[in-house]
Automatic annotation (TrEMBL):
NCBIfam families: PRK07046.1. It comes from Parvibaculum lavamentivorans (strain DS-1 / DSM 13023 / NCIMB 13966). This is Aminotransferase class-III. InterPro entries: Aminotrans_3 (IPR005814), PyrdxlP-dep_Trfase (IPR015424), PyrdxlP-dep_Trfase_major (IPR015421), PyrdxlP-dep_Trfase_small (IPR015422). It comes from the Bacteria. Keywords: Aminotransferase, Pyridoxal phosphate, Transferase. The keyword Transferase applies. One of its GO terms (molecular function) is transaminase activity. Belongs to the class-III pyridoxal-phosphate-dependent aminotransferase family. Its cofactor is pyridoxal 5'-phosphate.
Length: 455
């Protein structure tokens, strides 16, 4: 969908005005960006922190619950929540307590801790898969799954969906181009052509998947249950169930990466829809914001893993990092699973996210804009399309960076943080009705500015 010219023009003007205002409101952050630039390029510890749509980064003094306070003293209602890492609020009290207690009793030993059996049982009961492994990040978990799937099936290829993102997993950096798969041109330093072993398929298209799997050389389908790393695309009814069935038929393993779709409910989309994947991945918020991730798998997969390991010389498997599954991560995970990711908290998050989505929809309707608001449990996102998106190509066509940036900056200057790039909002257990009300009002004002109301 192309954005109406007048809206794009107003967005550009709004970006200019809001950038000036941002500059005036953040003298301490500006100063810190200069100071930090002496040794961190751009003043940030990792380059993509510069991808926020601000003239320079906001420097955080404190983040607690749903409030982020910056070094200039602005207190933001946080709907970005570290792009899901802090989805259960910043420093949830049970997790902070578990971390501080464990910190005095050892952080890492390259050995299992007294909590290991308990965490395994919690994961199995929660997500329904009997076996688990712990990694440091969701990227690592996905990488491990890709490697295991190839080792177990003796097949070379991985199927992902056009528009997907699964972290630093090289195998997923492909997209559709003119009906064929190409490597994403953004990927840095890649020497071999990933499209030789990774295939991109259109989301919500079981027929296309079936055709690809029929060749018998696909080890793994790696997918989110919904595409959340582009303008959000929900699965059509039966699509994910169809994937599970199709993969089984063709001897392909299926991994559901629930790192973002854990917004759907306490057991993720998998449990909400009673799905039975071979692998399940969850990173980001699983330890309340401390780096940790898990991947779960079936009895059959575990059995095959043992068989494959039996044929290899021990060590150098290419899976795992030294700090994976450390004692601190397990302590934080136990607290998060038991005391934070509770059905009660999810009830609050989903109800408030629905209020937020309804409020945003009402604003869109009031301004007569051809846009939708897509919701998946605690996650809601503004999408520049009149009807729900079907796949990555439609999502790419719906993205408008200028309008997104204008809304983002407008909200940020009014003490509201939403996720940059795609105006995604997340609701935490600590989000209040007042937070939501304030976002709905300010969002309506942003749309008034973009619609030229009062011009
Ligand atoms: N899977 C999905 C679905 C993600 O959205 C992301 C990050 N946005 C990752 C995996 C990777 O997570 P991390 O960067 O924490 O490794």
């Amino acid at each position: 969908m192309t954005m109406p010219v007048e809206i794009r023009q107003r967005a550009e003007a709004l970006i200019a005005a809001e950038s000036t205002r941002f500059d005036e409101l953040h003298p301490r952050s500006r100063q810190m960006a200069v100071e930090a630039s002496a040794h961190f390029p751009g003043g940030v510890p990792l380059h993509w922190m510069l991808d926020w749509e601000t003239p320079f980064p906001i420097f955080v003094r404190e983040a607690k619950g749903s409030t982020v306070t910056d070094v200039d003293g602005h207190a933001y209602s946080d709907f970005c929540l570290g792009d899901t890492g802090a989805m259960f609020g910043h420093s949830p009290a049970p997790v902070a307590k578990a971390i501080s207690e464990q910190a005095a009793r050892g952080l890492t030993a390259m050995l299992p801790s007294n909590l290991t059996a308990q965490v395994g049982a919690l994961l199995a009961a929660r997500f329904g898969l009997p076996f688990w492994q712990v990694t440091a990040t969701a990227s690592d978990a996905n990488r491990a799954v890709v490697r295991w799937a190839r080792a177990l099936t003796n097949r070379p290829k991985v199927l992902v969906f056009d528009g997907c993102y699964h972290g630093q997993v090289e195998d997923a950096f492909v997209k559709l181009d003119g009906g064929g798969t190409i490597m994403k041109p953004s990927l840095l330093g890649q020497v071999t052509d990933i499209s030789a072993t990774s295939i991109a398929a259109p989301f919500n298209d079981l027929e296309a998947v079936e055709k690809i799997l029929a060749a018998g050389d696909v080890a793994l389908i790696l997918t989110e249950p919904a595409l959340t790393n582009t303008a959000m695309v929900l699965p059509e009814p039966g699509f994910v169930e169809g994937l599970v069935a199709s993969a089984r038929r063709h001897g392909t393993l299926l991994c559901l990466d629930e790192t973002h779709t854990i917004s759907a409910g306490p057991g993720g989309f998998t449990r909400e829809h009673d799905l039975s994947p071979d692998f399940f991945v969850l990173g980001k918020p699983i330890a309340g914001g401390l780096p940790a991730a898990v991947f779960g798998f079936t009895h059959k997969v575990e059995n095959d893993m043992r068989r494959v390991l039996g044929t290899k010389t021990p060590g150098y498997s290419g899976i795992g990092t030294t700090l994976s599954g450390n004692m601190l991560a397990l302590a934080a995970m136990r607290a998060c699973l038991e005391e934070v990711m509770t059905p009660k908290n999810y009830g609050h998050m989903t109800a408030l996210a629905s209020r937020l989505a309804d409020g945003m929809r009402a604003a869109v309707t009031r301004h007569n804009l051809p846009w939708t608001v897509t919701q998946l449990g605690a996650r809601a996102e503004l999408v520049f399309s009149e009807r729900p998106l079907r796949n990555g190509a439609e999502a790419a066509a719906a993205i408008d960076h200028a309008v997104e940036r204008a809304i983002h900056l407008f909200l940020l200057n009014r003490n509201l943080l939403v996720t940059p790039f795609h105006n995604m909002t997340l609701v935490a257990p600590t989000t209040t009705e007042a937070d939501v009300e304030s976002l709905v009002i300010r969002f309506d004002e942003a749309l008034s500015a973009l619609s030229g109301e009062g011009e």
